[in-house]
Amino acid sequence: MAAVKLIGSPISPFVLRTMIALSLKKVEYELLPEKLGEKSELLLKSNPVYKKIPVLIHHDRPICESAVIVEYIDQVWPESGYGAILPADAYHRALHRFWTFYVDDKLFPSLVAIGKAETEEAKAEAVEQFRAGLRLLEEAFVKLSEGKAFFGGDQVGFLDVMLGCFVVWIEAMEEVLSLELLEEATMPALHGWVVSFRAHEAVKEVMPESGKVVEFFKMIRAMRMKAAADATN
Amino acid sequence: MAEAEQVKVLRFWASPWSFRVELALKLKGVPHEKVEEDLANKSPLLLASNPIHKKIPVLLHNGKAIPESLIILEYIDETWTDNPILPKAPHERGMARFWSRFIDDKCVGACWMSCWTEGETQQMFMEQARACLRILDDELGGRRFFGGESIGLVDISASFFALWLGVLQEVAGISLINGEEFPNLCRWIEGFVASDVVTECLPPRDKLLAVFQSKKQAILATKSMVY
């Protein structure tokens, strides 16, 4: 019986976050993917409030919400693998947490809005909102990285994990929708960061293949368009 | 310890979010300066300290600006380690964070919207609010505080229910939190507001009531202007 289990699969950026954290710590775990469209008994029992993945189960005790899980992982395995994920001092921890809130509350919803947009105008607006958010993160990166490769400096840190999980989705959406979201011209630092992040051993270990994410995105888009068409008939 | 620690809170007297920060500082015995903001005319200091959201509360500690109440609470707990507000053990710590986020992401919004909407929309929000309150009531169970024997992160996060919700209900003429459906929460409210530290920090109920009543009047006036 694995001491550490994770419900979910890496196609979900929130599950990917926790997998990156576990990979950075070199913690072994059992991955328990859910079937699309169905929620397992274990998931419903472990996360009765939200009924969502990811859920980390450690010694039979569940922890829910990706940001909470990553902080938990960092606290339980402080020195393992690549070491600490959260910064050492309280102020930098606050900054990483602040930008994580921003990513979750503002940036991610605007990314979703791009995928869901039904008109060209709606899409253009969502794209601009998303890019505006990324430009703020570009500035934050310059300040927090202090010239190093990651938001965490020399090491992959909390914000790297919390934002980096969306990289493969951003790229998939750029390909399918023929857009540039992470513009090299206006976001050169973030562009460099993506390269460093993707190259990190712990990240490479768990990052889903771009092709799989592209196919998945095309599939859910098709499902959504069909549902919309059915609804109007 | 630092020689001349400068701790300021950019706050608004009626805000439950700046109350959280002040309560935490008070619980830890941290001397601080309260800087009252006029939300209709935000100060250059606020705009510079929280350029992204331009909102209170902001904690200024020796010139470092920390916004977002839950993030401030964690910063306070990590910086002034007496009377901890977060549990030490990882699972309990994680659960405290989980419940604080639940309160902010689901509960407060549903309760707030229940009080400012009408008709079917109001019914929908009230159902959501009740579902949230039920979950919190179950989670609290027979414990004195969410933090156990002493006020912790979740209690501080839940302070909205201890005063603001009651006032809003009165203004809206609805009943959300009641002793019959939510006995644990009601008992918690009594215990929470009876604490000296909490009483010192809470804004006066009658002033709060007046502010929300005039807000309600303003909303009704705008509606009648449509016709």
Could you characterize the architecture of this molecule?
The complex is a heterodimer of chains A (233) and B (227). Chain A has ten helices and four strands; from the N terminus they run E-H-E-H-E-E-H-H-H-H-H-H-H-H. Chain A has 233 residues and is of the alpha+beta class. Chain A has a four-stranded mixed beta sheet, covered by helices on one side. In chain A, helix 1 links the parallel strand 1 and strand 2. Chain A is globular, with a radius of gyration of 18 Å. With 227 residues, chain B is α+β, with helices and mostly antiparallel strands. Chain B has two domains: 7-79, Glutaredoxin (3-Layer(aba) Sandwich); 90-211, Glutathione S-transferase Yfyf (Class Pi), Chain A, domain 2 (Up-down Bundle), CATH 1.20.1050.10. A four-stranded mixed beta sheet of chain B has the order 2-1-3-4, with helices on one face. In chain B, helix 4 (90-116) packs antiparallel against helix 5 (119-140) and helix 8 (164-172) runs parallel beside helix 11. The longest helix of chain B has 27 residues, at 90-116. Chain B is globular. At the A-B interface, strand 4, helix 3 and helix 4 of A face strand 4, helix 3 and helix 4 of B. Chain B: It catalyses: RX + glutathione = an S-substituted glutathione + a halide anion + H(+). Chain B: It holds the Pfam family GST_C. Chain B: One of its GO terms (biological process) is glutathione metabolic process. Chain B: It comes from Zingiber officinale (Ginger).
Outline:
The complex is a heterodimer of chains A (233) and B (227). Chain A has helices at 13-24, 41-46, 66-76, 90-116, 120-145, 158-164, 167-177, 188-199, 201-206, 210-232, and strands spanning 4-7, 30-32, 55-58, 61-64.
Mean pLDDT of chain A: 96
Q: Report the β-strand fraction of chain B as a percent range.
A: 5-15%
Overall pLDDT of chain B: 94
**Annotated CATH architecture of the largest domain in chain B:** Up-down Bundle
Please bin the fraction of helical residues of chain A.
Answer: 55-70%
Gyration radius of chain A, in Å: 18 Å
Q: What fraction of the residues of chain A are assigned to beta strands by DSSP?
A: 5-15%
